[in-house]
# Entry
Amino acid sequence: MKKENPVTVIAKHYLLPNKEESFKDWIRGIGEVCTQYDGYLGTEIIQPTSSDNNEYISIFRFNNYHNLRIWMESTTRKEWLDKSKNFSSQETDIHEYKGLGFWFSDSSKSKKPSLMKMSIVTYIGLLPLVLVVPDLLLKVANLNNFQLNSIATAIIVLLMSYVVMPLLTKLLAKWL
# Structure
């Protein structure tokens, strides 16, 4: 049985002023097209934090590198990228991360940490959250099992991505 190694791609889109709706229509369209490709796992969009910033970030995932390459090299993708020129102020920045590498990316380092070290740091960050977040949610809300797990997972993923892993990678940078 072949082991799947998911790949995360982060794309930064720089929009021209007043072109947000064009971008949103485009991102919906390209997202629908992606669903027709094997291994596509979904896309998330991060909107600008202020009205004077027109930088949108899309994060999309494929189940393995092979399926990602098929999408990245497709004529369909190239056609959709050509459409993005109507609302883009500059070329889109694209970065690929395999497996846990997404949390451990550092452009200033040429060598990535070993998978074992990345796994240990992820475990250290994840364990307290898995033990605490669901219990806290149960104390503040009356949730069924599905609701509890869905909300707890969302909170844990956000905390891991934006708080815990950036902090741990800074604290453990010398070891990593």
User: Anything to note?
Assistant: DSSP finds five helices and four strands in the chain. The mean pLDDT is 83.
